Amino acid sequence: MAEQRVKFMVNGRSYEIPIEPHMTLVEVLRDKLDITGTKISCGAGECGACTVLIDGKPTLSCLTLAMTAREKNILTIEGLAKGSNLHPIQKAFIEHGAIQCGFCTPGMILATKALLDENPNPTREEVKKALAGNLCRCTGYVKIVDAVLAAAEKMRKGGS
Amino acid sequence: MTRPLKPFDYFEPTTIKEAVQLLSKYGTKAKVLAGGVDLVARMRRRQVQPQYVVSILRIPRLDYIRSDKKGLRFGALTTIRSIELSPIVKKDYAVLYEAASQIVSVQVKTMGTAVGNLCVATPASDIAAALYALGARLRIAGPVSERVIPIEDFFVGVNQTVLKLGEIVTEVIVPSPAPQTGGAFFKLVRTASDIAKVNVAVSLTVRGNTCSDARIALGSVAPTVFRTTRAEKALNGQRLEPKVVGKAAQLAAQEAKPITDLRSTVDYRREMVRVLVRRAVEKAMTRAGA
């Protein structure tokens, strides 16, 4: 099928580009728009590394046909910081050593944002459930959960 | 495996009628796209290579959960996450809530639709087992006419359903539970994110301490989810004493037809059917007020 010109809204910016229907969202982000913070790992919905938010909902961009995401609000890891000022979730991940190799981090942080937007005061158990679709092979998760709880507290107090 | 998908022609009908026409025209060369978690993953693995993909995502009014005196209804685009978060489902259809909430990945539940899960027709479907216990029916649109069938008539075998050329499931209809009905869902998995080795969904209606209607569905222990009629018969009309429940669990284990595969063995699965049926019946009894 021929290429079609399609409009994407990524991190508040609008892009109009030609794509083919068999392209997945992560391919469009990384290869067409050069927005490479979103990672691709398992390609099968097991690892969560490719998580982005579409209209606020945590979505696996490697299993999403790009066509289905057109004209929706897509948030990737690049859209969280304001200039050089990192988002409180990003700061908390750094402060708590919740990042080692970093490959799972963009997906972890976006899944965290989806959780905290829905539930600003989660329990430890709720954090674990919310991140169950995101695999990390380095940290053992303890520091990630610590970081999420710390970010939640900071954000409740209106901190940045 | 992260290789790109093979090219296909892509359609986005905006009515069910249009979707049915496209699917009738392209037949087995076409696949329906809803949440995509199953279809796109299988396309990536080259397990399916449709020449035509028909997305139903832009058809309006397919994403809803409605409930009234008669029961619960949800549409072809209602996600597993929406079902999990619905206060009505949690309160009145606990077996369905428990099945949805035990699927672990939030992303998969946010994308994946319950109807899509049914249409994949995996024998391990937690959602299917819960809907068997609840006596759900499926509304199916097709080229000639619409039909409504019990969920038990939907599955034919592993990854096989009764859907004919051009047909799509548009709605799931769940009858309102009778007074003094309780449900429970249990599953056994290798790791939390894996599919079930065994799952058990139970719905019991009681009068006093006597069981007036039992529905017990088993998953992952036969080519399709099925109801264990022998166990149900052993409960119906009986006082729910430990001996009766134990006997029913035994019969359920005998009726299961599991296989040995990478997740588990025949013997272990059969034994776990017995254990989980007993636990699920006990929990459902308590919830029903027995």
- Runs of chain A in which pLDDT lies below 50 for 5 or more consecutive residues are none
What is the CA-atom radius of gyration of chain B, in angstroms? Answer: 19 Å
| Net shape of chain B | globular
**Overall structural domain count of chain B:** 3
The oligomeric state of the chains shown is heterodimer
Give the CATH level 1 class of the largest domain in chain B: Alpha Beta
Summing up helix and strand content along with how strands pair, one would put the structural category of chain B as: alpha+beta
Beta-strand level of the residues of chain B, as a percent range?
15-25%
End-to-end separation of chain A in angstroms reads 46 Å
The chain-level structural class of chain A is alpha+beta
Q: If strands are numbered along the chain, what order do they take across the biggest sheet of chain B?
A: 4-5-10-6-7
Looking at the overall shape, the CATH architecture of the largest domain in chain A is Roll
Main sheet attributes: strand count, strand direction, barrel closure of chain B = 5 strands, antiparallel
- In helices, the fraction of residues of chain B equals 25-40%
Distance between the termini of chain B: 51 Å
Shape of chain A: globular
The share of residues in helices of chain A is 25-40%
Q: Helix tally of chain B? A: 11
| Topology, number of strands of chain A | 5
What does this structure look like?
The complex is a heterodimer of chains A (160) and B (290). With 160 residues, chain A is of the alpha+beta class. Helices cover 32% and strands 16% of the residues of chain A. Chain A is built from 5 helices and 5 strands. In chain A, a hairpin with a 2-residue loop joins strand 3 (51-54) and strand 4 (57-60). Chain B has 290 residues and is of the alpha+beta class. Chain B folds into 3 domains: 9-55, Uridine Diphospho-n-acetylenolpyruvylglucosamine Reductase, domain 2; 65-175, Uridine Diphospho-n-acetylenolpyruvylglucosamine Reductase, domain 3, CATH 3.30.465.10; 181-288, CO dehydrogenase flavoprotein, C-terminal domain (Enolase-like, domain 1, 2-Layer Sandwich), CATH 3.30.390.50. Chain B is built from 11 helices and 14 strands. Chain B has helices at 16-26, 39-44, 80-85, 87-92, 94-101, 106-111, 114-120, 126-133, 229-235, 242-255, 266-288; strands at residues 9-11, 30-33, 52-55, 65-68, 71-75, 137-141, 147-150, 155-157, 160-161, 168-175, 181-188, 198-207, 210-219, 226-227. In chain B, the strands form 4 sheets. In chain B, strands 4-5-10-6-7 form a 5-stranded antiparallel sheet. In chain B, strands 11-12-13-14 form a 4-stranded antiparallel sheet. Chain B has a 3-stranded parallel sheet with strand order 1-3-2, covered by helices on one side. The model of chain B has no long low-confidence stretch (mean pLDDT 96). Chains A and B meet through strand 4 and helix 3 of A and helix 2 and helix 6 of B.
